[in-house]
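look at this record:
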Amino acid sequence: MTDQRNLIIAIALSIAILLGFQYFYEKPRVEQQKQLAAQQAAQTEQSVPVPAPGVPAQLPSGMSTAEVAKERPELLAEQMAAGTRVKIDTPALHGSVNLVGGRIDDLTLAQYHETPDPKSPEIVLLAPAGTPAAYYAEFGWVPQGAGIAAPTATTRWTADGAALTPDKPLTLSWDNGQGLVFERKIAVDPDFMFTVTQTVRNTGAAPVTLLPYSLVSRSGTPHTSGYYILHEGPLGVFNGSLTEEKYDDVRKAGSIAKDTTGGWVGITDKYWLVSLVPDPSEKVTARFLYNQVANTDRYQTDTMGAPVTVAPGASAENTGRLFAGAKQVKLLDSYSEKLNIKNFDLAIDFGWFYFLTKPFFYALDFLGRVIGNFGIAILVLTVCVKAVFFPLANKSYQAMSKMKALQPKMQELREKFSDDQARMNQELMALYKREKVSPVSGCLPILIQIPVFFSLYKVLFVTIEMRHAPFFGWIHDLSSPDPTNLFTAFGLIPWSPPTMLHLGLWPLIMGVTMWFQQKMNPAPPDPVQAKVFQFLPIVFTFMLAGFPAGLVIYWAWNNTLSVLQQWTIMKRMGVKA
C-alpha cells in the first residue's frame, strides 16, 4: 500500500513538473510573443546622455513629446520621400542614415532572413524612433557650459553623398551659427562595423569645452529565449572583464555606471549584437540605463569621454565604432585582433567552460564547411568527442555493468532484511566488498565528461551557424523545434493542439533512446526512486519538444552511442543487457 501511495505521489510530481514547465515558461513565452507583435508604442525622439559625475553640462535638447508610432516601412518611406535619409548599401547590411539627428537607425541584415526561405524578409536589426520597438545608435557632443548649441536629435545635417558603402564613406556637417562647425564621418566595412569620426572646428573667438558621447537606445523590453544558459540583454567588457546585466536588473537599478579604458558596451540578442566600441586607449564612463517613456520601457547603453577644450581657430576629433550585426565567432575574433577590442568574442555566451566551448565551435564549424551539412557535422563531432572519452566511458559502463549483474543478489538482501534497514545496508556493503564493486566507481569518469558534453551542448545552443541550417527530411531549420506533432498524427489531423501537446518525431526518438539508456543502467536501490526514474524519459520528452531540433538530434544521437557502447561492454562481461 505504501509503495502504491508513493508511486502515485511520484507520478503526480512528474506531471506537476511537466505542467509547471508549460504554464510558467511556455505559456508566458507565447503570450509575450503575441504582445510584442501587437505592440504599438509611442517613442520620444530624444535620447539624453548624462556626463560623468561631477561634470556640469548642458544636455542636448530635442522633442519632448512623443509622436504616434508608425510602422517602420511607412515612416521610412515618408522620410526617404522628404530627402532626410541616405542609403546604406553593403554586402552585409541594408538600410539608411537619418539626416535628422544623424542617427544610424535603419538596418536590416542582408544575409539573414526571418525564415529559412531566402525570399523571406531580411532580419530587421535597427528601427527609427517613432516606430514600434525602436532601436538606434547615436553619436554626438555634450557642451560643458550654457549657451553653446550642439547637435541634437532634431538637427538637420547636410550630407556629402547619396549613399554609404564600404568604398564611399559619408560625411555629415552642421554649422551652429555661433562659430562651431560639426562634422561626422561615417565609414562602414563589408561586414558589420561602422567607424564614426566626429570633428568640431572652432571658428569663434572663445574656447569651448565639449564631451564626446555615443549611445544605443532600445524601446520596449524585447522577448528573450528565457533559457538560464543564455544571456540576452545589456552587456560589456570594462577593463578586460565581462559584465552582463539582465533587463530586470537594469530596470530595478535605473542606472549602472562603469569607468573603463577601451572595452565595449552594448545590447545582445541570441544571434545579434549592437555594440559601442570606444577607442582602445580612451578613458570613458559606460552606463546601462532604463527609463519609461509613454508607458514604454526604454533601455540605453552609452559612453561618455573626457572633456575636450577647443581653442579658437583649432579643432578636436573623436573616433568611436559601432558594431551592428550577427555574432559570427571568426568575425568577432578578427575585429578583436585588428582593432584591439578586448574580449569582443565574449558577446557570444560561451559559458563557464569557455576554454572548451570555443574550440568545440571551431571544430564544428570546420566539419560543417567540409561536410556541407551542419546536422551531419553535429553527429560527427559527437562521435569524435565520444572517441576521446572512450576509456573513461568504458570504466563507467564496466562499473555499471558489475552493479547490474549484482541486482538479483541485492534484491534478495532487500527482501530478506526489509524490516531492518541498518542490517540491509551492512549486508550490501559486505556484498560490494566480496564482489570488489564500488557503488560510486562509475561516477568519477562521468563527472569528468559532464563539462565536455555541456560545452558541446552550449555550442549547439548559441551558435548562429545552426540557425536556418537544414538537416534531412522534415527538419529545414536546426534552430527551431521539430515541426511535426504526434497529436496531429503528424499532419493528418487538421487542428492546432495547445503548446504542451506539441510533440515532434525527433523528441519521441530522443525519449526512446533515453528510456533504453535508463534500462541499461542499474536501478536505484530505493523502489520509489526507481519508479520516479521510470517517468523521467516521458517528462524530458515533453520538456525538450520545444527545444531546437539540432539540440534534440544531438541528445538522441549521444544517447544512442552511449547505449551501443554500454551494450557492447555488458555483452563482453556476460551481463544480460
Summary: The chain is about 35% helix and 25% strand.
